Automatic annotation (TrEMBL):
Chain location of the short sequence motif 'KMSKS' region per the record: 252-256
UniProt domain RNA-binding S4: residue ranges: 360-421
Motif extent ('HIGH' region): 68-77
Protein name, per record: Tyrosine--tRNA ligase
GO molecular function, one term: tyrosine-tRNA ligase activity
Amino acid sequence: MSESRTPDTATAQNAASARYPVTDRVREAMAVSLRGVDELLPQAAWEQKLAKSEATGVPLRIKLGLDPTAPDIHIGHTVVLNKMRQLQDLGHQVIFLIGDFTSMIGDPSGRNSTRPPLTAEQIRANAETYYAQAKLVLDESKTEVRYNSEWSDPLGARGMIQLAAKYTVARMMERDDFTKRFAAGTPISVHEFLYPLMQGYDSVALKSDLELGGTDQKFNLLMGRHLQQEYGQEPQCILTMPLLEGLDGVEKMSKSKNNYIGITEAPNTMFAKVLSVSDELMWKWFTLLSFRSLDEIATLKKEVDAGRNPKEAKVLLAKEITARFHSAAAAEAAEADFNNRAKGGIPDEIPEITLAGAPLLIGKLLLGAGLVASGGEATRMIEQGGVKIDGATVSDKGLKLEAGTFVAQVGKRKFARVTLA
């Protein structure tokens, strides 16, 4: 960035030192900002930014940078999006930054090896899908979509060298994942040092007031504060959100762990998966995923502690999440479907499969119908009493089914209407 476009340092410092009154509305906004967060740094500076915004009527600029490394997102990813939506509802401007340039470097955060870069075609396709899903949470009218190639490409080699001169190798090596990799003798490529610099430079280019991220992004977020000061800007505050435990209540939500809820999953599946979380984990999910007020959630928890069935609270959460990504009608239908299954009923809509080879061994039928991933899984489910044909539990692994049409069920949620010829 050239000197002619660099803000005057003294002006930025004077603006930062000005004090604005902390009103009740500012305190309410501060409470919303702090809801469910891991860290908000520095809190006093963010309170003053909120006070300044109220006094001047100028919305704050809130940045979330996402590298589109995968096309689909799950509700664990929406924890940060929910926080952005809460801040949008306070009147602030959200910047949904797609890291099409930084994706070509690969974020080293939390990595024990160099992340493979994506092609431009992969980045473009993933970004389109990602934002289409993010819009299910964000207020599109208050969302500015940007790509960091807008300012990163024009930076050029000269600008990159000037940017790299604003941070030391010693400071870079304080980063936990770099320290561990260096100590273990694991290679660290020079280009990986550029990632946090480029993410920080995004904050300079966008004049960000607040940057959000997961707890694993703290180093990169603080880099934005450092570089903004280097360029004479008032430094952004940073807000990190905790990682959401998945359905197992232990590991963070992840597709690789198969403990996730995809936001494009069918409403019946989404509803049932939310109801499967533990009573204890439910309250963290309420805090991070629900748009109910903290007072409402606290009241609900008191009622459960006093004897109300926790399932009733969980149903409210399941319906809210399902309605957000589908519709209120779909959430109501999902609840009815779940209740029907709980009574031993069959869902209204199940896959219809046609198979050949009668008489067919039960394991091969389940595999052919897509109800199990392997013959081993079919055997385990039969041994556990988790397989039913037309409502009757199957206990014989050697069962052969003759030609006909029947409903096969595995576990509580997997059904198929199989026509065997």
